[in-house]
Design goal:
single chain, alpha+beta, 7-stranded mixed sheet, 6-stranded mixed beta barrel, 24 helices
């Protein structure tokens, strides 16, 4: 083995602690960088693979008038379309009279395949397969399941033959809503299609086999589906109109014939012949009536959905997008902190070898041969840490997160190696290690051997600002004065220590901040903005008095405000947004105490204008408008009007527009009637909410009710889905912070070992020697923590901005627990490092340290 090669391995052996520290810092940086960046794609790939295997429909049609075989053929006439009609309806059943999404099972169905988790599919008339989520309600194989008489089934009681998951219901906690029972669908079920008393199917599932290789959340996939569906919708609607027109026409002719026969029954002429002659002149009119009626019925009976409309599907995609957004910021900052400390460590390592470099030069070794020794050291540490971090991060973090997504159906875990990301992270790791070594070695090799073999002259101390404050400076002890002078004597170490501690503090604080801010969204939306607990929709033409009477019977009822509500599309400056909720008080221009409107600019209370509109902040941002601009409001009923924006209100979830009673009548006309109640309730359980919802929905005056607890639960799930990532952030940030503190302190001791040995020789006690150098670390830790607070808030704010969705704002919120945890961890790490330094200084060979330059 060549001398320089031996020297390389000897250097690694003699400085094993530093070598391992470099490896660990690089490993942590790369692990989090690659791991979190790979988590978003892994979540999407896993769901894509799962729904592809179970042939999830790309789109589906819900038709109250039914889906005919001709419509199925019309859909399949479009190139690349696979279509299947299914019997489906919402019914009441089970022990607790739950709302059930009931499907007719047909053997050979290829779209939305059931995935059995236990038992078998319904092969007999009395068998039923329940949603796996129904197990939470205590259902077991072999038990009976009964539906109410109003379900209109061939039989009411079925035997549970199996439990299954469906790709159309990926989230266990959400099954959608219905306008029967308590309005909340609890689970789905499948019985033989023959047992459902339905003349035709009510759902049409559409699938595009050629698009299944695309990411279901990508714009490329969505655009392709939209293009295909445009033609599918046209043909299905045209065929539906044709079918419905024929049925309506036949019914009109049948009714007219019967009427004519009844009128001519008293005459002696043949009734059928006379009736036939009587209606012939009207056949053209009947056709026109049939066309008008068919179009009117069809326009209100067809509801098209995409995968994004399925329960839980959009939330899952949003969660993956938020993790991807966070991955663009947090791991990058984490890696920068790691790289910065590594750069300093490697640079210091080469500087310590000045005498060795000078010796090699004096012995006649070339510059490249000498440089290769230290470059290999740095490259080996960088590659070792990078490779461990790459594979540990890419293969572990995504799997951990996937395994913790317990609210979703079991996903086929797909975690692929992100090669471009791996290559980038290894390149950055080498830049942090090899780059630092190359820069310092190059500088050292420019000096002569004689200069290199002598230590650098120590930096001279200078007067510091504190010395000019005489009353304070005079009261400090000698050791304290030396420590404070040394703080500014080694400015590069001061900056690096503060940056390292501030970075660690900021990372830990950001981990808590992400969690707290997402949680705060629901707290502020349903605490500061919205004060009602339920929205009750009234049937057309019905007065709110009946609903109030039912509500008044509930012990939880406090009050109800009558408002006019509508869903509208808002447009301005070439931008538009649909599904905006409009609210206007039945009287006056104030929604208190149900909704508090406060200006985003001044936080003052907003009063609804007589001739304008108040919109929420996210809506204003989406439309690129501000106070004073004009926008167009178009309701789903076809009414439209332009309004001037009189105010922009704080809001955290959803899009809302608020009008005064006068302004709403300008939009909807004087015939517009209040159609909604905003209900304030005392806190009650979900079962009590369900009971109240059933009582309301059983009344003909009410068509729907929704509770804010549902939205709160969705936000809670959103926060819960990020918990694994946040926990990983906090743990790895804490480990990085400790390693950084230890490493910087180690460098400090190594740089000043002769100085420390000198004061030991002069008679300083061990504790005094430790505090001589640790006092600097403590001061820098406190300063670093304070800077870390500021940096943590900035980093959290930027991540939240990146993670915002179209309709949700995350207010910057970091709890006191986050600040305390970050502070205590940093102080604890400083204490541990101080103790380790004390142990090391106790074992210092003072004579050898003082002779090291000879």
């Amino acid at each position: 083995m060549k001398p320089l090669t031996k020297n390389l391995w000897r250097n690694i052996r003699d400085s094993l602690g530093r070598f391992i520290a470099i490896v660990i810092i690089i490993m942590l940086g790369v692990l989090l960088f690659v791991g979190v960046k790979a988590t978003g794609p892994a979540l999407k790939d896993s769901l894509n693979t799962t729904v592809k295997a179970d042939h999830l429909a790309d789109s589906q049609l819900l038709a109250t008038t039914g889906v005919s075989k001709a419509q199925v053929k019309a859909a399949e006439s479009v190139s690349g379309v696979q279509a299947e009609a299914v019997k489906f309806k919402y019914v009441i059943g089970g022990r607790a009279s739950d709302v059930v999404a009931l499907y007719g099972y047909q053997k050979g169905t290829t779209i939305n395949r059931l995935h059995l988790t236990s038992g078998q599919l319904p092969t007999q008339a009395n068998q039923i397969v329940l949603d796996t989520a129904a197990k939470k309600s205590g259902y077991q194989l072999g038990q009976t399941h009964t539906f109410t008489g109003g379900s209109k089934l061939a039989r009411r009681t079925f035997k549970i033959s199996g439990f299954a998951d469906s790709p159309a219901y990926i989230e266990d906690t959400s099954r959608g809503s219905a306008n029967i029972g308590d309005g909340t669908v609890r689970y789905f079920a499948y019985i033989p299609a023959s047992q459902m008393k339905m003349p035709v199917a009510s759902q049409l599932n559409i699938r595009f086999p050629a698009l299944q290789t695309r990411d279901t959340f990508s714009n490329r996939y969505k655009d392709a589906v939209a293009t295909k569906m445009k033609l599918v919708k046209q043909r299905v609607k045209a065929q539906g109109e044709k079918d419905l027109r024929a049925a309506v026409y036949a019914n009109i002719v049948k009714t007219a014939t019967a009427k004519a026969q009844a009128q001519l029954a008293a005459s002696g002429m043949p009734a059928a012949a006379v009736a036939d002659q009587a209606i012939k002149p009207q056949l053209s009119t009947f056709q026109q009536q049939a066309t008008v009626t068919a179009r009117k019925q069809l326009s209100t009976s067809l509801t098209w959905q995409t995968r994004e409309d399925l329960p839980g599907f959009g939330d899952y995609g949003g969660s993956a997008d938020r993790i991807a957004a966070i991955a663009n910021v947090f791991p990058v900052f984490f890696f920068l902190v790691a790289a910065l400390i590594t750069f300093t460590t490697v640079g210091r390592m080469v500087e310590e070898a000045r005498a060795q470099i000078g010796t090699f030069k004096a012995l006649g070794y070339g510059k490249w041969a000498i440089a290769r020794n230290y470059l290999a050291y740095a490259a080996l540490a960088g590659l070792l840490g990078g490779i461990i971090g790459v594979f540990a991060g890419n293969l572990s973090i995504p799997r951990i997160v996937l395994s913790l997504y317990k609210n979703y159906i079991p996903l086929q875990q797909v975690v692929s190696l992100q090669w471009p990301l791996i290559a980038l992270s290894l390149l950055l790791a080498l830049i942090a290690t090899l780059g630092a070594a190359a820069i310092v070695v190059r500088n050292e090799l420019t000096e002569k051997p004689a200069t290199l073999m002598r230590p650098r002259a120590p930096k001279s101390a200078k007067r510091i600002l504190l010395e000019r404050i005489t009353p304070l400076w005079s009261r400090l002890s000698f050791n304290q004065k030396v420590s404070y002078r040394n703080l500014f004597r080694y400015k590069s170490r001061l900056v690096m220590t503060i940056l390292g501690i501030a970075g660690g503090t900021a990372l830990i604080l950001t981990g808590f901040g992400i969690k707290d801010s997402i949680t705060a969204t629901g707290v502020q939306q349903y605490g500061d903005v919205i004060h009602y607990q339920a929205i009750v929709r009234l049937a057309d033409g019905k007065k709110p008095a009946a609903a109030r009477d039912i509500l008044a019977k509930s012990k939880a009822y406090r009050s109800a405000g009558t408002v006019s509500g509508a869903v509208a599309k808002l447009s301005a400056k070439g931008h538009s947004l649909s599904d905006v909720n409009l609210f206007a008080p039945a009287n006056g221009n104030d929604l208190e105490p149900y909704v508090s409107l406060r200006s985003t600019a001044s936080n003052r209370k907003l009063t609804l204008p007589r001739h304008g509109i108040v919109i929420t902040s996210k809506l204003a941002k989406a439309l690129n408008v501000t106070t004073g601009d004009t926008l167009k409001v178009a309701t789903t009923n076809g009414q439209s009007k332009r309004f001037t924006i009189k105010g922009i209100a704080k809001n955290y979830v959803g899009h809302f527009g608020y009008l005064s009673n006068t302004a709403y009548h300008q939009l909807a006309g004087n015939s517009a009637k209040p159609n909604t109640l905003l209900v304030r309730l005392q806190p009650q359980s979900s079962k009590q909410n369900d009971r109240l919802a059933k009582q309301l929905l059983n009344h003909h005056a009410i068509v729907g009710i929704s509770f804010t607890t549902t939205a709160k639960k969705t936000l809670s799930n959103m926060s819960g889905m990020l918990d694994p990532i946040v926990l990983i952030f906090i743990l790895l940030s804490a480990i990085l912070s400790f390693v950084v503190l230890y490493n910087l302190n180690n460098i400090n001791v190594s740089e000043r070992i002769r100085e420390l040995s000198t004061i030991k020789v002069l008679g300083f006690f061990d504790r005094e020697v430790t505090m001589y150098i640790s006092r600097e670390s403590i001061v820098l830790t406190v300063i670093g923590i304070v800077f870390g607070y500021l940096l943590g808030n900035l980093l959290t704010a930027y991540i939240l901005y990146q993670a915002e969705t179209e309709a949700v704002v995350f207010p910057l919120t970091i709890s006191i627990v986050g600040y305390l945890t970050a502070t205590l961890l940093m102080l604890a790490f400083t204490g541990v490092v101080t103790w380790l330094t004390h142990r090391r200084l106790q074992r210092v060979d003072m004579v050898e340290a003082l002779k090291s330059n000879e």
